[in-house]
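Mods, move this if it's the wrong board.
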Amino acid sequence: MNTKTIYEIIKYIEDHITEVISLNEIGKMVNYSPYHCSASFHKYHGISIKSYIRKRRLQLASEDIRETEMKTIDVAFKYCYSSQEAFSRAFAKQFGVTPFEYRRVHLPILIYDEKKILAKRGNNLMKDESIRNIQNEISGKNSVKVLHVLNGRCMMQEFKENGHFKEDTTYIPFNEAMCWGSVTEDLFSDAFIKARVMSHQITVKEYKNNVIKPLEPLFLNDFNTIVLWFGSDMFCQINMLTILAYLDKSDFLGDVLFCMKNEIANEMLPEAYEIDSAGSYENYLSILCKKEMPVNKMLPATYQAASLYLSYRSPNSEINDYIRKNSSKDRKTLIKDLLKTFPQYGLGDVQFDMMISDIVNSKAL
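Not the wrong board. Structure tokens:
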């Protein structure tokens, strides 16, 4: 089955997303057996057709909840759920909040929109305008000292090149990949640094220069407002959780604002969300140290990221499954396909290359 046929399947699903969709109907539409459709879609896309339909329905349902006054039960029936209760359970499992909570407080979520992935990425002019508007609004409301924490040197460079640095304002990058490797409970301690050095296979000096030194303004605790500029994918959200955990552990009493970039579509959400860091350290301990979902509430985007984080290194994760099913491809092509197929994880070529090596080495044993 070629890429064009896969796109035809996706288009059919999108056109009939509010109807009952059967594998038999999809097979007839593309002239393949239901089994071949299912296997080919999974090999290409990394998830089953059923999972894709479920995620898209919940994504569209979240938009209806946020942007319309439709009753929850009507949204449930629209997207083929048998009851409001079944829909609410599925919604909470996907986003970490109920439809009622999501409608009451419009918190950002990880976008799962295949049409945006297949179409052109977001307009840079619109993204730049959103960044400028957000910063102007923050400056207008806060006459106090503001610290902007950006997710990594790439975002830092992007802000610099596009003229987003405001005078008399401090910007720092968090140059980490907290979703990869081991951590310790005591954030940014010598033991923490040692664990991260082993994870990245670099020297202590390199880690301190690349990660710790840029964070020194954060450690001074000399700001009244901290603005977190992080993406929606797993990579960015786990990094943001680490910063929030530090703020919680250090008893930061100022305001914390979250500005989210939709990494998949290369768009910046048009507003800053005020968030509470309380409970973030406990979430950090649960997710990164104990490798379990926490009891405390989280932002929907962080909840989704945690779910991805806790499963992606397991032997039967959707990424590892995809690697095994496409092991005949040369490594460069496979890494390129992984980057395209699993943007919600935010992993880079280095992480995917190591995951491929893990599977190759396990086969050799």
